[in-house]
Amino acid sequence: xxxxxxxxxxxxxxxxxxxxxxxxxxxxxxxxxxxxxxxxxxxxxxxxxxxxxxxxxxxxxxxxxxxxxxxxxxxxxxxxxxxxxxxxxxxxxxxxxxxxxxxxxxxxxxxxxxxxxxxxxxxxxxxxxxxxxxxxxxxxxxxxxxxxxxxxxxxxxxxxxxxxxxxxxxxxxxxxxxxxxxxxxxxxxxxxxxxxxxxxxxxxxxxxxxxxxxxxxxxxxxxxxxxxxxxxxxxxxxxxxxxxxxxxxxxxxxxxxxxxxxxxxxxxxxxxxxxxxxxxxxxxxxxxxxxxxxxxxxxxxxxxxxxxxxxxxxxx
Length: 316
Known about the structure:
Elements: E1 2-4, E2 7-9, E3 13-16, H1 26-53, H2 60-89, E4 93-95, H3 96-129, H4 134-137, H5 140-168, E5 171-172, E6 176-177, H6 184-188, H7 196-229, H8 234-267, H9 273-298, H10 300-315
Parallel strand pairs: 3-6
Antiparallel strand pairs: 1-2, 2-5, 3-4
C-alpha cells in the first residue's frame, strides 16, 4: 500500500466502520440482528425440510419457495457474521479482495432472489390464467433451467462491478468504509479516481435486473387479477386469490425495501448516514426473516407438513 499526495494506492485492507453515528449502541443493535438471523436460518431450513420431505409439495410453487429459502440463508450469512464481528468483537478490518468477494456475493444473491420472485409470479400467472397447460409448461427440467438461468444472470451481470473497481480504481482517499458490510457504492465512493463509469454500471445492473423483474411481476399480477375477478363464483375467486397472497406480501416487502434503500443511498443527501445503513441492513435481513413466516402462515400445505414433522417427533 503506497500513500501519495494524501491518496492511497491499491489498499490491501479496508476498515468497516459499522454504523457511524451509532457506535455507542452498536453492541445492542447486534442483538436483534443476531436474533433475526437465527430465526431466518431456522425458519428457512425448516421450510426446505418440509418441502423436501413432503412429496405432495414437489410442485413448481414450492420448489421455487425452497430456492428462495436457500438464497435467503446464503444472503444473510454473507453479511451477518462479519457485521457481528464489528459490533461485538471490534474486528472491523477486512482484506480488500475479501471485501470485493463479499460485495459480489451480496449483490448476486439479491439479484437471484429477484429472479426467483419473477419465476414465482410467472408460475402463478400460468396456474391461474392457463391452468390446463401449467403441468406441461412448468416441468422439472424447466425449473432446473430457470434456477441455473437466474443464477448465471446475476453472477455475470454483477461480476463487472468487481472488475471495474479492481482495474479502474487505483487511488483511494481513505480505507474507512462507512458501512457495516461491503456495499458497491460505499466502496466506490472511497476512490480518488473518476467513478462515473462505476456508478453508471451499478445503475444499469439495478434497473436491468430489479427494474425489469418488477415490471414483469407487476404485469403478471395485473393479468392475474383481471382473470380472478372475472371468475363467476365467489369461492373460486377467493381460492385463486388466496394462492397469491403470500407471494404478493413477499414481493412488496422485498421490492419496497430494495428501492427505498437504493434511492436513499444515492439521492437522500440530507438523510443521516446511519439511516441509510440501517435501511440497507434491514433490506438484507428482513426478507429472509419474514419469507418463511409469511408462507408458513398463508400456505395450508406447509402448515400441514409442519404439523406432520412435529407430530412425528411427538409420537417417536
